[in-house]
Write a sequence for this structure.
């Protein structure tokens, strides 16, 4: 690594730490707008620096930096009565996770610099089109996933007598009751249908009858999150194929890339507004939940603000609670869920953790929530470093041959990083079920004798 690169890294790291510390200190002193501004500057600078190196808008470090730091910036404004001042420990957790993530990534860049300097190792290769046989497998895989998802959804529909959440009035959270344990993993896997369709379209141009079938199976898959009134899965239904397209596209002009990103934002916003309107919340219900200090702020602004910021508030409650560490039980929940062990009384009793929510209706948490609950601040630091290692190797792998396994894995991790404020993704059984499905997709679509990774 050259001296100027070392200097740049040190300057970036020190500058980032100073901005974060300044934002935390400003928040503690009550200078909330200043705190928000400093965190926004940190987000913009880090994203700009990474983009100047990679020229890739969907770099995992950019997604993590923008999501995490912008979320903290909005939270520091404390616009609702749900908010409370963050203590030193909470600020350490928020900053420790973020800088541990960046440190692990940069450390691998430094340690593996010789390999990266090898032109043969760093040369970007085009997507290797597998040919007609793989195209046929991709076509039938799209159909199979759609049939499996819709079929599982119909099983749930029969169980609940076709009382779809979109048809239930006066019950905004009907979605949470409309599921059968185990079956629902297959239901929500409908989000892979458009992503696999995009992959297939890169392999061959479909005939008219094939295009018609693709349209029908995608429409059927789309009906699942719509009938379920699931904001998250409907957004993923549109975001996943966009990411696949961007990863497989060989060359894309900057203005086209910006148009695509703007399209993602607009579609996601439209979907969000549509589903919120269909939830049929009682008059004044959302305002009573959000508890905005300025009641004149439109609900259309309150909703996304609380949707982002309350997750940090829930994390702060956990950090300040003084709960006894659970030593891996939270993060091992996918194992208990996917194996059915969570239904055993002795295991179920171990999984009864204290709930720390500002209000009963707002249950989402940030990506580090379970890491802290299991191992405290040290667990958050290690977790951040592990995600940095994951980001490094995924970034290097996606720069080479675009195998479907790598593309779909990168696609999912990109969303989890981009929504790092929202959920403890890697403690969610659905996340690991989807990872397992990704392995299956990779095995089905790989060429004979080709490695999965």
């Amino acid at each position: 690594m050259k001296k100027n690169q070392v200097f740049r890294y040190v300057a970036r790291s020190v500058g980032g730490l100073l901005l974060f510390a300044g934002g935390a200190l400003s928040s503690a002193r009550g200078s909330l707008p200043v705190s928000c501004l400093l965190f926004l500057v940190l987000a913009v600078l880090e994203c700009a620096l990474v983009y100047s190196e990679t020229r890739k808008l969907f770099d995992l470090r950019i997604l993590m930096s923008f999501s995490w730091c912008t979320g903290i910036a909005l939270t520091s404004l404390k616009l609702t009565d749900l908010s409370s001042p963050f203590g030193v420990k909470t600020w350490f957790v928020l900053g420790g996770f973020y800088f541990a993530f960046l440190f692990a990534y940069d450390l691998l860049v430094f340690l593996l610099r010789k390999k990266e300097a090898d032109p043969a190792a760093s040369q970007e290769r085009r997507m290797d089109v597998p040919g007609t046989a793989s195209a046929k497998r991709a076509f039938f895989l799209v159909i199979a996933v759609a049939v499996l998802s819709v079929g599982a959804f119909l099983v749930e529909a029969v169980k609940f007598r076709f009382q779809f959440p979109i048809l239930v009035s006066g019950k905004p959270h009907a979605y949470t009751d409309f599921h059968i344990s185990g079956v629902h993993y297959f239901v929500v896997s409908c989000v892979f249908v458009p992503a696999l369709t995009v992959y297939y379209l890169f392999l061959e141009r479909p005939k008219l009858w094939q295009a018609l079938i693709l349209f029908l199976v995608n429409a059927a898959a789309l009906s699942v999150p719509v009938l379920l009134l699931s904001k998250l899965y409907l957004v993923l239904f549109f975001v996943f194929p966009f990411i696949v397209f961007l990863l497989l596209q060989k060359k894309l002009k900057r203005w086209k890339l910006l148009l695509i990103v703007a399209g993602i934002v607009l579609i996601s916003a439209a979907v969000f507004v549509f589903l919120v309107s269909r939830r049929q919340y009682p008059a004044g219900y959302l305002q009573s939940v959000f508890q905005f200090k300025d009641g004149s702020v439109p609900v259309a602004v309150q909703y996304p603000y609380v949707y982002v910021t309350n997750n940090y508030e829930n994390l702060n409650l956990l950090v300040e609670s003084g709960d006894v560490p659970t030593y891996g039980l939270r993060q091992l929940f996918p194992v208990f869920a996917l194996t059915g062990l969570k239904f055993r009384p002795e295991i179920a009793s171990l999984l009864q953790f204290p709930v720390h929510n500002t209000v009963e209706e707002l249950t989402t948490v940030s990506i580090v929530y379970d890491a802290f609950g299991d191992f405290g601040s040290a667990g958050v630091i290690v977790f951040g470093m592990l995600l940095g290692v994951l980001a490094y190797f995924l970034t290097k792998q996606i720069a080479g041959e675009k195998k479907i396994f790598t593309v779909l894995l990168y696609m999912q991790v990109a969303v989890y990083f981009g929504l790092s404020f929202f959920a403890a993704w890697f403690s969610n059984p659905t996340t690991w079920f989807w990872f397992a499905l990704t392995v299956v997709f990779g095995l089905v679509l790989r060429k004979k004798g080709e490695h999965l990774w």
In short: The chain has 19 helices and no strands. Residues 369-398 form the longest helix (30 residues).
